[in-house]
Amino acid sequence: MNKTVPKSETAKRLLSYITKNHKGPLAAVLFCITVNAVANVAGAMFIKRLVDDYISPMLLTADPVFTGLINAIFIMALIYLTGIIAIFIYSRMMVNISQGVLKSIRDDMFSHMQSLPIKYFDTHTYGDVMSLYTNDTDTLDMMIAQSIPQALSSVVTIISVTFGMLLLSIPLSILTFACVAVMLLTVRKIGGRSAVYFSAQQAAIGKINGFIEETINGQKVVKVFCHEDEAKADFDKKNDELCKNTTSANTFANIVMPVISNLGNVQYVLIAVIGGTMAIKGVSGVTLGAIASFLTLSKSFSQPIAQISQQVNTIIMALAGAERIFALLDEETEADSGYVTLVNAKYENENLIECREHTGMWAWKHPHVKKQTVTFTELKGDVSLFDVDFSYNDEKLVLKNVSIAAKHGEKIALVGATGAGKTTITNLLNRFYDIADGKIRFDGINITKIRKSDLRDSMGIVLQDTNLFTGTISDNIRYGKPEATQEEIVASAKLANAHDFITRLPEGYDTVISGDGSNLSQGQRQLISIARAAIVDPPVMILDEATSSIDTRTEAIVQKGMDMLMHGRTVFVIAHRLSTIHNADKIIVMDHGQIIETGNHESLMNEKGKYYQLYTGSFTAKR
Fold first, then answer.
1. What span, in angstroms and rounded, lies between the C-alpha atoms of 154 and 37?
2. For 237-302, what is the HEC assignment?
3. 104: Cβ–Cβ under 8 A, 6 or more apart, which residues?
4. pLDDT tens digit sequence for 158-188
5. Dihedrals φ, ψ of 595, to 5°?
6. What 3-state class would DSSP assign to 368?
């Protein structure tokens, strides 16, 4: 997201979003803008007629008749009214266009975000990502709804006014162009200085939002460790950086308008003095009416430049926000070259065949392109790792020569110190990350050949950190199986021993969970997440510290449900409470990314090695 992209490329890309689905309305907006600009020029030009044809002659008449003047003023009012109606119409239409564009951008952002690999979210703070959806899209809204129509109106106005001024007086037009050239140079110089600071401002906003999000989520930790002063100091540092960038950006941006306005006043005075002299001396046929019209047009000529300069800060902020948004959209999606899929199957004449209807049996559909054949392998849950190496950053290996064989129905426990590589193995099984070397096979099939969505459909996972979503308890349990019936929801809750506490809630299964389940205890949230995994009924289950947030008494109750949940499945268990893995078929002890011991509880205790030390707490100092 830190890649620098030329502002012109960002502007082109943003423009393509605007024109993609709104060509008709944009054409109507441009027409209304043109009508407004022409009306303003026509009204200004009409002043010449009022002065030369009505007001000046009436001043020389003893008994003037006002009928013609009143009619002329009425016509002039109609001209300006037309412009006002045009402004009203295109302003309303631009609101619809801006909201439509933002909806498309948000849709694309969220859709693309769902396809990003886990690595992206491991390397970006949630607050920074959220800033894209809030602050950065808000700046785009201001630009599309206000700045773009203002810019279009200014361009059309400048073109229209140029023709009007040239018709009135070429010498005065040249003088006006010279003054405007000075204005443009000023805008370019000052605007360029502010652009750098506005880009830095948007990045600083993302950082500070990320810091705030982290601090709010970890507020209990901040309090427990009396880290308030340090947290405040860190926030002040980031806030100072934001303040510095914002102040610098707005200082340059806010200078532009007064400078342009004063240059416009200088221009107005020069035209009045020189034009008045020309009218008095009759140079180039300039009349008082022409001077009055030209002064109005000159204001209309310099005013768009002032208006554009006023929108410079909004445009630059929006482009900086758009650059960050497009950086997200340009992030590489999760690669998936898998072609083996999961299908409903059944046996017919001892042959496994694919079925359209749900049979309760699943099989891997494996097309062989060269042989032009398709084979089916029953989904059982045999998982094997062969000499697996893995690194998160291509610098230091996290796993080294890891080999594990898990047969259908076996319970494999992974134990070891924090950072030993236990959770990394489960990430590789789900293909959240791909291995650097070696092979992982699922039912004898290399998982790189299996489509990721199908691979993950065959696995259930219960994490240490529970993640619930706003909605009813039933909605959260059926999260992985939207078509689940209420009977299936209740059955999975009973399996996880969550049914009793759910029925004691005011609305039972219809109780609405707010946020991440803040109205439930940590243990209750974990029970719901276990029920959510149970309802999917996968052949492979991954339990990553699944009972760590549950007290010992509740854990004993949950463990019975867990044993039922694990029955007949291949299970990978990560546990720091070694008392929960007595009955594991195989216990794998890891240290610094390598397997150092393998066996069941009894055999490992007899070896009196690392597992024995972890279980009994009898560590020996090594020299």
1. 8
2. HHHHHHHHHHHHHHHHHHHHHHHHHHHHHHHHHHHHHHHHHHHHHCHHHCCHHHHHHHHHHHHHHH
3. 17, 20, 21
4. 888 888 888 888 888 888 888 878 877 877 7
5. -85, 125
6. strand
pLDDT of the residue at 300: 77
Residue 565's alpha-carbon distances to 540, 559, 562, in angstroms, are 11, 9, 5
Sheet of strand 399-406, all strands in order from the earlier edge strand to the far edge: 399-406, 383-390, 437-442, 445-446
Taking each helix axis from N to C end, the angle separating 288-310 and 170-217, rounded to the nearest 10 degrees, works out to: 20
Is residue 142 a contact partner of residue 359, using CB atoms and an 8 Å limit?
A: no
- The residues, any chain, with a CB within 8 Å of residue 81's CB and separated by 6 or more, are none
Cβ neighbours of 620 (radius 10 Å): 5
Among candidates 400, 407, 404, 451, which has minimal Cα distance to 430? 451
Strands 362-368 and 351-354: unpaired
pLDDT tens digits, 302-344: 777 767 766 776 787 788 888 889 989 999 988 888 899 999 8
Residue 599: both structure tokens together: 């066996």
Return the DSSP state at 573.
E
**Burial (0-12, 13-18, 19+ Cβ within 10 Å), 376:** middle
Query: Which is higher by pLDDT, 68 or 274?
Result: 274
In the chain, how many H helices and how many E strands?
22, 16
What are 546-561's pLDDT values in tens digits? Answer: 666 666 666 666 666 6
Q: Which of residues 291 and 25 earns the better pLDDT score? A: 25
CA distance to 301, 398, 476, 479, 511, per residue, from 471 (Å): 57, 38, 7, 10, 8
Helix 67-114 / helix 23-49 crossing angle, nearest 10 deg: 160
pTM (2 d.p.): 0.71
Q: Which amino acid is at 554?
A: T
Helix (H) or strand (E) holding 17: helix 7-20
Is the confidence at residue 2, as pLDDT, over 70? no
Look-up: residue for tokens 């003893």? 62
| 330's tokens | 């340009």
Q: Evaluate whether 315 touches 143 at the Cβ level (below 8 Å).
A: yes
Cβ–Cβ contacts within 10 Å for residue 245, how many?
A: 20
Average pLDDT, whole number, for the chain?
83
pLDDT of residue 588: 93
Residue whose token pair is 């990045």: 203
Euclidean distance between CA atoms 392 and 396, whole angstroms:
8
CA angle, residues 453, 457, 458, in degrees to nearest 5 = 125
184 or 536: which carries more pLDDT confidence?
536
CB 450 within 8 A of CB 338: yes
Segment holding 40, helix H or strand E:
helix 23-49
- Biggest CA–CA distance in the chain, Å, is 127
Helix axes 170-217, 228-281, angle to 10 degrees: 170
Instruction: Give me the residue label for tokens 């950190």.
Output: 465
Hey, which residues does 406 pair with through a beta bridge?
A: 383
From residue 95, alpha-carbon distances to 23, 34, 105, 619 in Å are 15, 18, 15, 69
Pairing of strands 540-544, 512-513: unpaired
**Whole-number Å distance between alpha carbons of 402 and 386:** 7
Report phi then psi at 376, rounded to 5: -120, 130
Pick from 269, 270, 267: nearest CA to 259: 267
SS (H, E, C) 125-164: CHHHHHHHHHHHHHHHHHHHHHHHHHHHHHHHHHHHHHHH
Q: What is the dihedral of CA 348, 352, 357, 358, to 10 degrees?
A: 110
